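Reading a protein record of the kind used here takes only a little practice. To see the layout at work, look at the sequence and tokens printed below.
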Amino acid sequence: MTILRIADLHTYYGDSHVLQGVTLDVEKGTVTAILGRNGVGKTTLCRSISGLTPARAGRVTLNGEEIARMPPHRIHRMGLGLVPQGRRIFSSLSVYENLAIALAPGSDVQQMLSIFPRLAERRHNRGNELSGGEQQMLAIARALAARPTVLIMDEPTEGLAPMMIAEVARVIRRLRDEGTTVVLAEQNAAFAVKVADYAHVMSKGKVVHSTDPATLWADEDIKTQLLGVPAGGSERPRDASV
């Protein structure tokens, strides 16, 4: 079942035509990766879907309802959550407070902290007292506090140590197992292919290749030309902990 559908999406920053007809479907209960080098339009796509940078043309439907012209708060209430690039947590608020202000009816802070044990230990610390990895966990937990049916994650492993990348992978797998649909925009293709069910590759504002992760990782031309993976290097990681 398709839960999120993007059709011929065009988004501009001023006169700069960033998204040039993006089309893709996201199936319910899956992890869908959006891959590509830096600057190909992944973040703009995340922002266009969530209403932060409205598209000039094209359609975005969530559960069959058109959302492309809706303001961000209405899209959010319909069940679409965003973990933005750069985390954007409230640095002066504690972990507990960051979560409390995002709670949806039926959710509670303790529930979020049970998913992220490290945050439970740091629940009284302010955002600016957390490590980069802890801030990323908090950004994810804050988005989940609203109980989204579709969660968009924009570069969640950016700047993280391997241990924290493994933690992000654990959380993504848990979300999928619990029925949350995840859209994962990532430059780190080696990470994304380990957790995704399907992958789309972007180049110059368009989706240029779509396949399952295993097939993608076996295609040396796609990896080297569109994903920046060195030729003959970086076999698909096999570590089940990641």
Summary: The radius of gyration is 17 Å. Strands lie at 2-13, 16-27, 31-35, 57-62, 65-66, 80-83, 150-154, 181-186, 198-203, 206-211.
